[in-house]
Please model this.
Amino acid sequence: MHIASLGSTWKKWDLHIHTPESFVQNYPGTKEEAWEAFLSDLENLPDEFKAIGINDYVLVDGYERVLKAKREEGRLKNIDLILPVVELRLDKFGGVVQGGKNGFTQSGWSRINLHVIFDQVEPDFIRQQFISAIAPSYRLIHGSAGEGKWNCVISRQSLEALGAAIIESVPLEKRAAYGPPLIEGFNNLNVSADGLRKALENDALKGQFVVAIGKTEWENLKWDDHTIAEKKTLINDADLVFTAADSPEAYAKARGKLLESGVNANLLDCSDAHWLSTSEDKDRIGNCFTWIKADCTFKGLLQAIEEFEDRVYVGDNPPKRHLVDRNRTKFIRSVKVVKKPGATLSDIWFDVDLPLNPDLVAIIGNKGSGKSALSDIIALAGNAQNYESFSFLNPARFRNPRTRLAQHFVGSLDWYDGSTSSMELDKNPDPSSVERVKYLPQSYLEELCNELGEGGSATFDTELRKIIYSHVPEEDRLGQPSMDALLKYKVAEINQARQALRQSISKLNAQIVEAERRMAPEFKKSLEERLATKKAQLASLEEAKPKQVEDPNASPEALEESKQAATKIDGFERQLQEIAEEESRLRDTKSMAAKKQAAAHRIVQTLENQRKQSDIFLAELMQLLNDLGTDVAIDSLFQVQIDSDRVDTIAKAMQAEIDGVDAKLVSIEPGSIFKRREEISASIVEAKSKLGERQRLYVRYKEDLAYWEKARAEISGPADKAETIAWLLSEIDSLAVLPGQLQVLKTRRSGHSKEIHAQIQATVDEYQRLYRPVQSFVQSAEQMDMDLPLEFHVRIEEAGFQDQFFNKLNRQVRGTFSGIEESSQNLRRMLQEASFASADDAVAFADRIDHSLHVDLRDGQDARDTRLSDQLRKGVEPLEILDYLFGFEYLTPRYSLTFDGQEIGQLSPGERGLLLLVFYLLVDKDDIPIVIDQPEENLDNQTIFKILVKCIKKAKERRQVIMVTHNPNLAVVCDAEQIIHASHDKVASRFNYESGAIEQTAIKDRVVEILEGTEPAFKNRQSKYRLQ
Model:
């Protein structure tokens, strides 16, 4: 029969209860009435009380009566364990006296007793093997009359005889102050420490008892007196220390005193009950108790002694038990794996209904025994999201499409809140479902380790951000659901400022590109060639100047009619000139109006853009004011007034003016420019027909001269007219100042780039503020005596620069970055040499790349100049690459984790695996159950015991931990509250599971079966567990 026990759980223990058989007790009524009241009181204890110690001083009659009530009378069904306790007064303590004005009295040491707690053995076994072996002796208190020795087997009768002898040893007149002989005999019985030690050396008692030293007021004793060295040794040799504290605070004070004094501090709070629970006396049933996390057996007590700090608690409720009560949806009560109704598969495979301990569950077994099967199923039913890493529920094994075994089974988890989550074994959780179990299968950890070793893991980064965010105090989260959302919220304004700076840089880059274009030798050469061409044209024009013709009107022979015609032609030509000037003025007017109209339209659009931005800003500001929770009026903080009416009026006026000019230019109405030019041109033709030959030649000469002068002016031209000699000379002269202007532009660009770097640094500062809590937590791990040199770093680093940069370059042309392999190595070297920690460093990198694009820095190229535009891919403009380079789009805050000063990628696979486990077990504040498959894989024993064990023990304080392990030693040293042993019956095609506490014999035997080195190794390594 396979056992299915929950293992070690918190229960209330009280190992110091006196029965009505005790020498000193205050239970009311006759003996039988007292016993009935006593047993009923025990039966009415709260449900958490499961173990009691029956202590009637040196007798076990009361223990015998309680056992009978449970075994034969069906009483005390609520109590799982009844232990016999024998309480003795050692002579080392009982003889300590102190002087006073009234003579010698007992000191505080006199009220310290020794308790021997036995396993639940038969009463006669204790009488025969222990009580009969004690060699008692007594000495009357200093100053009393007479002294003697007494050697008898301790019994009620022999104690009465001792008391009678004591009473008879005092004068008759003083005997009235003494009590009954039985009480006096008991009060004066001081057992020899040596005799007790010899009695306990009995082979029959081996492994059947523990020793406790008991006292109520431990905090009042002084331990620095050299005279009590022997008593100190006796206390330190004991397994436990008893007290009956007034309150948990008093218990803590007493234990603190013991710890401070360097003596045994395994302190249990016990009631020392002499009264019923209804009494107001402190020493009443149920008043004092100790929570012990153990199987309710004597071996469970032994386990608790060895893991005292983790398994013993005094107070209203142990923290972990309280945690489970408050978070019932996050702890699994049991796991079930059964066939679906109507399943046709004959093989059993699974018929599992296992309780799961809310602390640490260790699944052990040989290879192929079904360990990973159980962990996969728990993870599946808990909606674990990394189901692709299942080692059992995968197409190669239980989900094999040929056998289709998985489709016949369903796994389910019962939670402490009473809910159930189920999943058919051939199905996967919905990706959108809430993950209720965190699963770390071995293949998943290995994959993460490999990714980290190869340069990074997006999966780990995501997990890391979640873990980091879990440490950010709730009040600092600003209502944001994740670290990414919080960062986005906090750096939104910083990012807007960066975008504005990048726009400014882009404008400067456009000017720089133009300046560099003009500074190129070929540009000046082009200007000079065009100037030479213009000068040649001018020289040719000078040679083609019309030859002068004498004015025939100056000749006295000119005919009167010819003179008149010439005069008319001159007048007509002046009119044509005036018309041309009028038309030119109209066109100038139209051009000016069009410019003003365009400016007006830009102003209106700019105002509209600003209005939209203001609306967005006002909406964001309103949300921030709502978050602020005050009644600050928004218009008291920010106001904007936009009125484009006047500009709209100007734009309309300009349009009207343009329309008026167009009407005049295209009109063919009488008096229009067109009609007047047409009429005057006809008149000139008519007038010319009346000219004489000489007059006609003269008029033609004047026309040719006017055309020549116009052509000459167009070649010489003013400096503001493009492509004239004056303009070209001005352009050539302006080249001399370009280097200075270019340097000014680059300096301004560097300034903006540094401002962008400052904005990125501001984001880094926000990251660091968010990382501070988790860094503090990691540093606090040092208090656990754990060598855990973990450090979080946030710094500015480049990301993706090489790919983005080369996507814009043509590496087939001459230049620093020519050649695929050579350029890649070249840029990698530059990136390795670069630092982006400071603004100056970042700008220096950008300048270096920029310089490399303008000069061929390859060996043997003599630093020849290269043009940026020539090195770009088709369709890529110089402005694009300069904006990318100096806008620092490739710089980003990067958080990293180092272990002992090394980046994750530089660690060994084992170190990376350890780092991941540390994060999930220790740093991660997520509190859902975590299932880990073989956490010890790739770790050396020293690392397992120094770090992993402590992390697992820390993790189980705040969440349910389920681990699969090939090494039961790990389960033992982690003090697993429950061990599940897996086995595979290949003949029956069935996986079997049995569970229980490590202190249970059946479970201990399973551990020994598969432990490396067999049972001797188990005993040697874990002798402290006394499980042999």
Summary: Residues 95-108, 138-147, 1013-1028 have pLDDT under 50 and may be disordered.
